[in-house]
Amino acid sequence: MKFIFTLFIAILTFTLNAQSDEKETVIFSNIGELSDEQLNNSGASKLTFISDWKEAKKMAELDIQNGIPFLLLAGGIAPTIIATDPEFEKEYGIYFYEFGCTGPENELIIAYNQVIFEYLNKEHGKIWKKEVRNDVVGFKEWRKNDNRKK
User: Does 16 fall in a domain?
Assistant: First the structure.
């Protein structure tokens, strides 16, 4: 039902924009700004081919160095789209990357995301934590541990 509703809203939005004379574009994610090469060479897309959490952390660090850090999501058949995603991505300089039904091991996604969480903390303080999606893999657990450190 959620998928049908999301699909309906997307079609309606695109139809209304197509009928409008304005040059407004609806973008569900800023990931479209990346070239195929950037996306294909990112740690996020290579995560399914590794089995070591240390390697996952290295991939996240490389993505940060290359200016293309991702927050990884575990999805289902259809991606979950939240209207504030593009704003969050632009504000904090990250991209959401959603794996479908199949993806890398959860521990690898968590290891990658932990590096990105630390990066966001270092670059933006704690404000991003109030704005990030709650379904980012490993975020709730990381946040609990981060709060205990203080």
Answer: no
